[in-house]
Amino acid sequence: MSTTAEQRIETAITSGSSQLDLSRLGLRELPDSLGNLTDVTKLQLQDNELSALPDFLGDLTNLGQLFLGGNRITELPHSLGNLRNLAALYLDRNPLTAVPDSLGNLTVLAQLGMSGCGLTELPAVLGDLTALTHLDLSGNQLTALPESLGHLTALIRLELHGNRLIRLPDTLGDLANLTWLNLHDNQLVELPYSVGELRNLHELRLGDNRLAALPESLGNLAALKNLNLGGNELADLPGSLGNLTNLTRLSLGGNRLKVLPDALGNLTNLTELDLDRNELETLTDALGNLANLEELGLHRNRLTALPETLGNLSSLTLLYLHGNRLTTLPESLGNLAALEELNVADNHLTALPETLGSLTNLTIVGGPPPTE
């Protein structure tokens, strides 16, 4: 037993402290004296070597915050459900095999962290935690989510990246207060139509999944500012994507896109657009409407020509065109006074437009020099 731990517990008892930090002390078990701290509201036990938790932990009924991340805990005591005042519980990076049903008793819990625990399933009682605003389940081995997830209507942020999810429950659309949803690096093959009900969503990360199509309802997410769909299997995009007029960042790299909808030109607040590593052969003239665009990634496609309307992108600073099949560039690129970097390497260019020579702040990567 750590002498430091015993000393800190004794000090907390005598001083009446409401906080106790026993983190990073190499603890393999908790001293019985900890059970005497019935007034403690914040207990830090993270980054020790605990493999089990004593039942008396459930006697600390005034606990509001409990940090248990980075231990070796394989199961949680049923008594954990007695901590009815617990508002924040962090269990990240423990080899948990299951979550007890008693967890559903924590009805004031607002923040729950269970990332990197190796969980393969979640109990339906998760839906009883209706006060949750932040839920982190990233880095587990979940293949499905309980329908009861839809009961968590107070959720603001939901982290599910790095799992094995194939589909999502329709009840996902009931999370009306959600502003952040991270589903990056799963195995999703489709999205439920109900995703369009998440009208307060600002951030949606769906990169590195197996999505081959998107529901038209995605266009209902009018508050969305950042949408990442990179690394999927998308061959086309719904026209409703053009309704997302508050988007500032859109990532579509690493898909199978051959054409772009004209509706993409409606996204006039975009500052970053990533279309690299697709199968694009042509671009819609509507891209020229994106007057606020600062970065445009089109590298590793099959482009043979560019529309003159790209010369309308007056805010553009970075333009990546390397790895295409371009033989010429439009003269209108000389209008891009803000352009700082143009990468045209690995194309079939024999000359660059003379108009580029007037852009004194421009660095050209690859390709021949501008025509004299």
Automatic annotation (TrEMBL):
Ligase recorded as keyword: no
UniProt keyword terms in alphabetical order: Leucine-rich repeat, Repeat
A Pfam family hit: LRR_8
Domain Disease resistance R13L4/SHOC-2-like LRR: from-to ranges: 33-113, 195-298
InterPro entries per the UniProt record, alphabetical: Leu-rich_rpt, Leu-rich_rpt_typical-subtyp, LRR_domain-containing, LRR_R13L4/SHOC2-like
PANTHER family reported for this sequence: LEUCINE-RICH REPEAT-CONTAINING PROTEIN, PTHR48051
Name this polypeptide is given: Leucine-rich repeat domain-containing protein
